[in-house]
Amino acid sequence: MMPDPLHVNDPHVTSVASDELTQKEPDAVLLPGTSPDVPQPKVPRGVSVARRIWPPLLLLFLIAAGAMLWLQQDRILDWVVLRNYKPPAAIQKLASQATFTPYAKRLFYVNHPAIEDRDVFNRNCLDDSEQEVTVLGCYAGNRRGIFMYNVTDARLDGIVQVTAAHEMLHQAYGRLGGNERARVDDLLTKYATTITDKALLKKLSAYQKLESTEVLNEEHSIFGTEIASLPPELETYYKQYFTNRSQVAAYQAAARSVPSAKRIFCTATPPRSRCL
Asked: Would you list the DSSP string of 26-72?
């Protein structure tokens, strides 16, 4: 009798059949929202690498952008202040007569400068620290205003131009960075020790009760507008603000040389300060 092939008692065959039954395919790992019948996509190696590196790259970009904005903040804020501002004709004329460079004009215009009569001027320029000097103008702070007294006496022609330049230089001094501020302060301090003009020394002494930085701030404006000839390094420094600084100094000298100039100043300027 022939053996039944379906019932062969062969241990080898039995083992093979058993192995075939037990060796199943491992369950596939499904991606969210997919079906077991759909082939699972493989993430390309390049995409995987990109996913790992883009967060730090984004962080570096944000840091760099923030640093750039910080370094350019004054230029950006100046643009915002000036975008809808058109200087009045009288203000543009002042800037031209004071020989402002384009950069100096920007520093001047961002403060929306105004020429004011006595009452309005006194309201805007109340500074008890300057009671001992003739106050013809004031600077309220970065982009917060420059106010000039409307001196109408023809004998003092040019003094408003000097005032405009003086106040603009206060804004300029406030924009100086750390290293440049230190360099300019050193130049101002050294020059101050060489002054012998009694009238100028008297004016400077009126500011000595202020903080040292404020004294330097005033020297920065006074030297730049009232001294005809400065040391070469200072002359070079002031060229970024004036195309012809000597013209401004000439305005100041002409006003001061008028006979009885002191009395004229006392009657032409607001009554709250003592005339020098």
From this structure: PPPPPPTT--TTSPPPPPPHHHHHHHHHHHHHHHHHHHHHHHHHHHT
